[in-house]
Amino acid sequence: MSTDTAQVWRQARAVADAVLYEGYLLYPYRAGSRKNQSRWQFGVLGPPRAADTGIGEDSSLSAQVLLRPHGLPWISGAVRFLQLQHRGPERDLGDGRFAPVEELDAGAQTWLRWDEAVEREIPIDRVPAPSLPRTVEISVPAGHEVEVVHGGRLVRTRQQLRGLLSISAEPDGDLLRLTFDVRNTATPVADKDQAIATSLIGTHLLIEVSGGEFISLLDPPDAAADAVARLRQHRCFPVLAGPPGSGHLMLASPIILYDHPQIAEQSAGALYDSTEIDEILTLRVMTMTDEEKAQARATDPLAAQIIDRCDSMSPEAMLNLHGVLRDPHADLVPEVPAGVNWWDPSADTAVRPETDAVLVNGVPVARGSRVRLRPSRRADAQDLFYANRIAHVTSVHEDVDGAQHIGVVLDDDPAADMHDWYGRSLYFAPDEVEPLEGSPRWK
C-alpha cells in the first residue's frame, strides 16, 4: 500500500470509527443513566423477522455506487460492525464458587454488569469488476472468556453472528453501477435481548476501487446526473471518503455525511456522541462529581478513557475546542470608521452586493444581469420549480467561507418590482445560473 493510499485509508477509518461508535455510550457515561440503559445505535442489522415482530431492527442494508472505469477496475474493501459482548461480574465465594452480582468492587477498580462491544471487520478481497457477482460470508464465532480480578471474576460472553454480503455490477452507459447488499442471516430469535445479541451493530462499508474512480452522489457531473438518480439506497448512503480530491474510496454510512468527511484536528479523542459539541461535552464531564466519575469508569473502559482524558486536559487543549476561524477573508472583515457604530450600515465598507460581480463561464454577472436558472442536485425542492426560468440579478454576495451567492428576481413574476424594491430575492450559486446576452461588463 502506497503512502498516499495509506493516508486515505487512515482518514477514512477515523470517520468510520466515529460512525461505528455513534450512540454506543452517551453522556453522563454511566450504566445507571436511562439513555444508556435503553441503548441504540445506527446501522443495526437485526436477525431475520426481528423487525416484523417488534423485537429488533431490519436485517439488511444496501448501497449502490457509480464508478468510471479507467481500464480494468478492481474492487476491495471491508464490512465493519460491532458485536455485543455481555460482561457479567461474579463475586468469589471461595471453594471455587462464584455468585453473579450487579457490581463488583475489585479494589482500586469497580465493575458493573454491562454490555460491551467488540469491533469486527470482514475483508472484501480484491476482485476484478467483470468477475462479479460475488458473495462474502460473514461469520463471527460465539465467545466465552473469564478474566480474574481482585475479589472475583468477569465473565464475557458473545453470541455467534452470521451474515452475507452480496456484490454485483452492471453497466450504466459509460459508467459501472455496483450494488452492495449486507444481510443478517442468523437464526430468528424470540426476544429483544437475543435480537440485539445476534445483531450487526453500526454496520457500514468501506469500498475501494483501483483502475477507476467513484462518482460523487451528492454533486455528480452533469453527464452522470441521470445515472445517479437511478441509484437506490437502503438504510445507508455512500459518500466519497479520504482527503478532498480523492475518488478511490467510498464510505457507505448509516449516518448521512457529506463527501470527504473529516475528524476535526482539535478533537483529542472520541466522545461517542458526535451530535454534540466536544467542548460542551468535555465541560460537562469536568463538572461531574468524583462519585459520578467513578460510576462512569466502572461502566466501560471507553468511558474511563473519556473521564481520564477530560480530567487531564490542558488549558491550551480546551482553548482549541472553543473554535477555529478557517480561511478568513480580510475584505469581508471591514474596519469600522471612527465615530461610527458597528451596527450602522455605513460601517460595512468591505462588500457591496449591489455593485459586486462574479465571473460565470467567463462572463461577469452583477446587478442587472439576466440569467437562466439551472438549479443543481443540491438545490431544495422549491428551487427546482425555477429550473430554466429567466431572472435578473439583484445582488452578489460572498459569505465568510468564500462561497458566492447570486440574488435574483424572476422576470415573469408579477411582483418582481416589489421584490426588488424591498430586497426579497432568490439565491443561487454561480454554477446554477447561465448568463444571457446583455449581461453588463466590468466597470
Could you characterize the architecture of this molecule?
This protein is of the alpha+beta class and 443 residues long. It folds into two domains: 3-316, no CATH class; 345-435, SH3 type barrels (Roll), CATH 2.30.30. The protein is 19% helix and 37% strand. The protein is built from eleven helices and 20 strands. It has helices at 3-21, 34-37, 50-53, 192-197, 225-229, 278-286, 290-299, 301-311, 315-321, 381-384, 416-422, and strands spanning 60-94, 97-100, 103-106, 109-112, 114-128, 134-140, 143-149, 152-158, 161-172, 175-184, 201-214, 237-240, 249-253, 357-360, 363-366, 370-373, 390-398, 404-410, 426-428, 433-435. Strands 1, 2, 5, 6, 7, 8, 9, 10, 11, 12 and 13 form an eleven-stranded antiparallel sheet that branches. Helix 6 crosses helix 8 (301-311). The chain is globular and about 95 Å long. The relative contact order is 0.14.
Précis, in short:
The protein is of the alpha+beta class. It contains 11 helices and 20 strands.
Topology diagram in text:
Layout lengths: L2 H19 L12 H4 L12 H4 L6 E35 L2 E4 L2 E4 L2 E4 L1 E15 L5 E7 L2 E7 L2 E7 L2 E12 L2 E10 L7 H6 L3 E14 L10 H5 L7 E4 L8 E5 L24 H9 L3 H10 L1 H11 L3 H7 L35 E4 L2 E4 L3 E4 L7 H4 L5 E9 L5 E7 L5 H7 L3 E3 L4 E3 L8
Global geometry: globular
Number of domains: 2
Q: How is the biggest beta sheet arranged? A: 11 strands, antiparallel
Structural class of the secondary elements? alpha+beta
Radius of gyration: 28 Å
Q: Tell me how many strands there are.
A: 20
Overall pLDDT level? 88
Give the amount of beta strand, in percent: 35-45%
Distance between the termini: 54 Å
Fraction of helical residues: 10-25%
Low-confidence stretches: 327-333
Q: How would you name the oligomeric state of the polypeptide chains in this document?
A: single chain
Count of separate DSSP helical elements: 11
